[in-house]
Amino acid sequence: MLKDQTEIRPTRRYVEKQEAVLAAASRLFNHKGVRGTTLSDVAQEVGLSTNSITYYYRKKEDLVVACLLRAIGEMVEMAGLAAREATPPERVRAFVARYFERLARTASGERPEMMSFREIRALPDSHAATAFDAYNDMFRGIRRLLRDGEAAPRGAAERAALGAAAHLLLSLTTGAAAWADRYEPQDYPRAADTMVDLLLNGFAAPGTRWHAPGALALPALDMPDGTQEAFLRAATELLNEQGYRGASADRISARLNLTKGAFYHHHENKDDLISACFERMFTVIRTTQSRVEAGPGSGWDKLCAVSRALVDYQFSSRGPLLRLSIYGALPEDMRQSRMQTMARLSARFARFLVQGMQDGSIRPLDQSVGASLVNGMINAAVELRRWVEDASADNAPELFIRPLLLGLFAHD
Questions:
Q1: What is the pLDDT of residue 194?
Q2: Which tens digits make up the pLDDT trace of 115-125?
Q3: What Å distances lie between residue 374 and 155, 291, 332, 352, 356, CA to CA?
Q4: How many Å apart are CA 139 and CA 134, to the nearest integer?
Q5: Spatial separation of the C-alpha atoms in residues 96 and 196, rounded to whole Å
Q6: Are 356 and 205 in contact (CB under 8 A)?
Q7: 147: three-class secondary structure by DSSP
Q8: What is the Cα–Cα distance from 323 to 68, expressed in whole angstroms?
Q9: CA distances from 270 to 152, 249, 267 (A)
Q10: How far apart are alpha carbons 388 and 396 in whole angstroms?
């Protein structure tokens, strides 16, 4: 657990050095992953010995929790300030604007990075409860931003819709860190306005109506045998939960009740399997996009169809897709090429937006930001069950796709 700070006199020098430790650790955890970062790495960043780091945090897990609580605290503060606004749309605008303001201050070097929440599940049980309790409290605060009035939601359906909308808002807001660097720091407010416009007003042109599209047949994947497919699913799940270094050969094999020898019978090393996981995901997304694009319908019809097909995949026995947050902790030689491929696939969603703007089914909008939000929504669907217990492929279109494409508060 975290060291009792009452044991240490909180001098100005102590506080400044502790802040430096937290800033360096957050940056390293974001770029190398929790398991890929050592206390020695953090010490080197701030010019201390490893023993000196333990003066502030006895164990690496204590430092991870401290970084997470620091980031969660900032998000809670943003939500608290946004809660002062009178209506849910005004609160959404204020919350997103404050997050982009924080991103701009990081981009300009004024503030250190906030730690990503992607590896919170990688913490041991002794530390996970503290982080999860704080995260859940933060989530509840963001969910309250979307409530119209103080009354609690009535009925299971209303609670499910509110939980899904809060997950969508939080995921797309924090996910903006992956694409906001396309802009100059002084242009971040404009990017925030663009994102808010899409969150509040959706993608549909006036007169375009929502209809839950049927799921497309998913593309057949060329896999050698059932065992290899099982390895890919198990590795994908572990990568999503534990990050690159947490998805070890031992853990992957144990999840399938197989020996480590069975793992190496099918793969030369872990990186070969992880590369195959990425290629599998890219094939699913690319083939689904191409199949939808070649089919009939307006740009709006195709946007709904591709969203439904890929969200459906997240809930299927063949899913999930890899989370976008996994890229930060990949080795450098693996990271760049995978990020470039994913960026290209994300940009392909813009084709449906452009077609819709041309045929009048989608309103004029920034297709680059729109494509990023669609990709982020599809990616975030993998965790929808965490906030909506009975979420499934059947109700996810209404719970998760519709609020993005029509707007968070659209009722028509």
A1: 97
A2: 999 878 778 88
A3: 29, 17, 27, 11, 14
A4: 9
A5: 7
A6: yes
A7: coil
A8: 19
A9: 47, 6, 7
A10: 10
Write down the pLDDT at residue 412: 46
CA distances from 111 to 27, 104, 181, 242 (A): 11, 9, 15, 27
pLDDT in tens, 287-309: 999 999 999 999 999 999 999 99
CA dihedral for 29, 32, 36, 38, sign (positive or negative): negative
Written as six digits, the tokens of 248 are 């070890």
**118 in Cβ contact with 328 (< 8 Å):** yes
Domains of the chain: 5-201 (1.10.357.10), 226-406 (1.10.357.10)
C-alpha to C-alpha distance for 94 and 78, rounded to whole angstroms: 8
Does the bond joining 320 to the residue before it have cis omega, within 30 degrees of 0?
yes
CA atoms within a 13 Å half-sphere pointing along the CA-CB vector of 122: 30
pTM of the model: 0.89
pLDDT band for position 202 (cuts 50, 70, 90)? very high
* Per-residue tokens: 97: 């604007």
Q: How many angstroms from the chain centroid is the CA of residue 305?
A: 22
The dihedral sign for the CA sequence 198, 200, 206, 211? positive
Residue 362 bridge partners (DSSP): 204
Both tokens assigned to 390? 């009975």
Q: In the chain, helix, strand, coil percent, each to 5?
A: 70, 0, 30
Length of the chain: 412
Reference 190, options 104, 91, 110; nearest CA is 104
Q: Is the pLDDT of residue 409 over 50?
A: yes
